[in-house]
Amino acid sequence: AQRVTQPEKLLSVFKGAPVELKCNYSYSGSPELFWYVQYSRQRLQLLLRHISRESIKGFTADLNKGETSFHLKKPFAQEEDSAMYYCALSGLGSQGNLIFGKGTKLSVKP
Amino acid sequence: DTGVSQNPRHKITKRGQNVTFRCDPISEHNRLYWYRQTLGQGPEFLTYFQNEAQLEKSRLLSDRFSAERPKGSFSTLEIQRTEQGDSAMYLCASSSTGGSSYNEQFFGPGTRLTVL
């Protein structure tokens, strides 16, 4: 079955602390992995995708095919990082419909 | 505003009524997606268009749901005989098959449906 699992519903850290949002997936073919973010009262937007290998707003994510994981990391969390984060996948070369996890709410305390 | 737009933003209806939502994608995008999101869940794929052709439908899309994209531009999603279980946020996204944003989906603000 094709599935994305985000085990934490809520993650709370203090400003300046490292943060890691976990994402595991199950997919029979070659997946493309994404992280989407939704800030308060804003629309869902792409944060990063594994094929671009970019670091956006200090966040990075590495695709680990052996562990079927795509964890999102940031060494020093900022208050403005507080948001809902969704991990998603689609099939490489597919028509692109996304399979989302349930999301993790990140709260960065001052 | 050149982003994806959706109308209406909110819709309250009584059980059994029909509702229709509209999505206007980014103008140069040829792919358009509909998703549904309920409380505590991530978005779930409903259906997908490439230009005017509806190429894929999820099993979530019951016979009461129909989507169109008649000229390959805007799309409508209709729900007939609404049920309380249809209450959700309905999201539209669009993407391009070319350029630097290849297959990056841009989401609209959503239409929140409440069925009483």
Structure commentary:
The complex is a heterodimer of chains A (110) and B (116). By secondary structure, chain A is mostly beta strands. In chain A, 0% of the residues lie in helices and 45% in strands. Chain A has strands spanning 3-5, 10-14, 19-21, 24-26, 31-38, 45-49, 60-61, 72-74, 83-91, 99-100, 104-109. In chain A, the strands form three sheets. In chain A, strands 2, 5, 6, 9, 10 and 11 form a six-stranded mixed sheet that branches. In chain A, strands 3-8-7 form a three-stranded antiparallel sheet, with no helix packed on it. The N and C termini of chain A lie far apart (40 Å). Chain B is mainly β and 116 residues long. In chain B, 0% of the residues lie in helices and 48% in strands. Chain B has no helices and eleven strands. In chain B, strands 2, 4, 5, 6, 9, 10 and 11 form a seven-stranded mixed sheet that branches. Chain B has a four-stranded antiparallel sheet with strand order 1-3-8-7, with no helix packed on it. The model of chain B has no long low-confidence stretch (mean pLDDT 93). Chain A binds chain B through residues 4, 9, 32, 43-46, 49, 86, 88, 90, 95-103, and chain B through 3-4, 31, 33, 35, 40-45, 48, 50, 55-56, 91, 95, 103-110.
